[in-house]
Amino acid sequence: MRVRAAVPACLLALVVVSGCGSDPGDRDDAATDRPSATATSPASSPSSEPPEDPRTPPAIVVTGAAGSVTTQPGSYCWQSSDGAGTCADAAAVDPAKLPVLTGVGPATFDFAVQGWSFTATFHELRDHPFGDDAQLEAQQSEPGHFTLVPPQGSGDFRVDLHGSGPQGDYAAVFRWQVPPEAAPR
């Protein structure tokens, strides 16, 4: 008898939790199931400007010598100027499923919301799951424009971007493969 009563309660809890923190109008299930990569030339830049006071963090597009990738969004807490706030958690992504940037560094990205700073943690991917990590500050050449340089000449890295600013904090991730023949000597 207790089992029968518990089943509807569990189903109700599942429905409530699955809707938590999401706005059905902002959801694109097809886009969230796979990494996004763009095949733009290195000289091009994203043309869409985020709203003046976005309700969620804008997407980060990293541009390197061989092209651009849109990072995989991660966890964030964000509060807009009207006081509305949103937090979202993201599960770790298998490095094989991350968007991949290839080529030698440096790479750049824009985050067009004022007052933000970013760090990049480079996790070297090897045959074993625990490679060497290097945490570097993303250099800001002008407001909202950041530059990343890999910590060594070549390698296969999972790059975790962590940003903080007036609206809260934001994480994004991508994979950067720098082949040995492309590394500066």
Report on the architecture of this protein.
12% of the residues lie in helices and 39% in strands. The protein has helices at 2-19, 29-32; strands at 37-38, 61-64, 67-70, 72-79, 85-88, 100-102, 107-110, 117-124, 133-137, 139-142, 145-148, 155-165, 168-178. The strands form two sheets. Strands 4, 5, 6, 8, 9, 12 and 13 form a seven-stranded mixed beta sheet that branches. Strand 10 (139-142) and strand 11 (145-148) form a beta hairpin.
What is the secondary structure topology, with strand pairs?
Elements: H1 2-19, H2 29-32, E1 37-38, E2 61-64, E3 67-70, E4 72-79, E5 85-88, E6 100-102, E7 107-110, E8 117-124, E9 133-137, E10 139-142, E11 145-148, E12 155-165, E13 168-178
Parallel strand pairs: 6-13
Antiparallel strand pairs: 1-3, 2-3, 2-7, 4-5, 4-13, 7-11, 8-9, 8-12, 10-11, 12-13
Instruction: Give the oligomer, counting copies of the same chain as homo and different chains as hetero.
Output: single chain
CATH domain topology: Immunoglobulin-like
- Look at the structure and give the CATH class: Mainly Beta
Helix content percent band = 10-25%
Per DSSP, the total helix count is 2
Separation of termini? 72 Å
Overall structural domain count:
1
The fraction of residues in strands falls at 35-45%
Biggest sheet statistics: 7 strands, mixed
Question: What would you call the structural class?
Answer: mainly beta
Low-confidence stretches: 1-51
CATH architecture: Sandwich
